[in-house]
Amino acid sequence: IPRATLSTLAIRSAEACEPLYELLKASILSGSVINADETRVQVLKEPGRKAQNKSWMWVFLGGAVKKKSVVFQYETGRSHAIAYDFLKGYTGWLQSDDYEAYHTAIKKIRAEGNTSIGHILCWAHVRRRFYKYWEMSKSPEAKQILDYIHDLFELEKLRENYSNKEFLKQRKNKAGPILNSLWNLLTDLSPQVPPGLAFGEAISYTLDNWPLLEKYLEDAHLSPSNNAVENAIRPFVIGRKNWLFSATPRGARSSAILYSLVESAKLQNLSVYDYFYYILRKIPYCESQVDYEALLPQHLTAEMIKP
Description:
Elements: H1 3-16, H2 18-29, E1 33-42, E2 54-64, E3 67-75, H3 80-87, E4 92-95, H4 100-111, E5 117-120, H5 123-137, H6 140-154, H7 164-189, H8 198-208, H9 210-213, H10 227-243, H11 249-267, H12 272-282, H13 289-293, H14 302-305
Helix pairs in contact: 1-11, 3-4, 5-6, 5-8, 6-7
């Protein structure tokens, strides 16, 4: 079978799944926390653009606890308008890195009267900055900072032993002293370390973003890390090293749909092959939104889709 034929079949299959893709977006917006990130993708034949221009795959993860979904969204740019369009009617928390587009989108949404959207940053990003410096310097101060961050992450294990309400109380009580000690250490080190050095940049980044870093303590559903969405992106990044680019915007959008369904199925511990074998036989007979909703990964089990 010619490669072009196989590619066309994959695209047509993805387009048949588009109603599921739109429902995945709705399910993400119905949850209390959305994790967001973005990564590069190259598309060769975008109208009005050179083949070398970079486009972007935005990724959003969220939804009900233990019923989360992932959406990959192909865009030609990386502006705040993309995050704004996705989040403008949302009530809940956004967790992201410190990319300015997210800050701008949140400010715009709040300025329009939606004050029910919160924003937090990620301690894993902080840790990477200090770890990179410690790896090359073996600085005892950097190691002490890493130990404090490690202790914050260890507290997340308390979830296993408490209700959400009690976990929130326990985490806040135990994290408070750790954060105070870390803050004092960073403010002591800040005047001593030139801001142009990697260590100084890591310290400044942490102190500047402190209010959004400690906000995760306000809600039991929040985590100190944005790793969940980064884990969802990783297969796309690894795949990109092999397939390198999409030929057309239609192909890139189809990739977004397929990756969304694949990663959402994996979140529900479904066999990806079994899931696609199941839904591609059912979709031609879907007549209503209810029919499509029944095919979302969070509404299925391994037994239900077993061939």
